[in-house]
């Protein structure tokens, strides 16, 4: 199936695509410069050492939802910032 399009419409489309590309590049640069914080994830074992408590205690806290966690497939990961909140 062939679509007939005149040159003027083609120019308009090319300009819109160019503007969109510039916009996306500009916004991507803004996101990377404003979001320089890295996410530090810890295992249950690392979290228990960091908090100086047993792994079982950390798992119980996770089970009770006292600690926010992320599940990556079957692995449990805890943000260090969440552990810092508990210490305060």
Short description:
The protein is mostly helical and 88 residues long.
How would you explain this protein's 3D organization?
This protein is mainly α and 88 residues long. It folds into two domains: 9-35; 41-87, Alpha-Beta Complex (Molybdopterin biosynthesis moea protein, domain 2). It is 60% helix and 11% strand. It has helices spanning 7-34, 44-51, 55-63, 80-87, and strands at residues 41-42, 70-72, 75-79. A three-stranded antiparallel β-sheet has the order 1-3-2. The model has no long low-confidence stretch (mean pLDDT 84).
What are the key terms here?
88 residues, mainly alpha, three-stranded antiparallel β-sheet, 3 strands, rod-shaped
SSE string, helix = H, strand = E? Answer: HEHHEEH
Q: In the residues, how many domains can be counted?
A: 2
What's the rounded overall pLDDT mean? 84
Poorly predicted parts:
none
Shape: rod-shaped
Q: Within the largest sheet, what's the order of strands? A: 1-3-2
Q: Give the helix/strand class.
A: mainly alpha
The amount of helix comes to 55-70%
State the separation between the terminal residues, measured CA to CA: 66 Å
Write the topology of this structure:
Elements: H1 7-34, E1 41-42, H2 44-51, H3 55-63, E2 70-72, E3 75-79, H4 80-87
Antiparallel strand pairs: 1-3, 2-3
Helix pairs in contact: 2-3
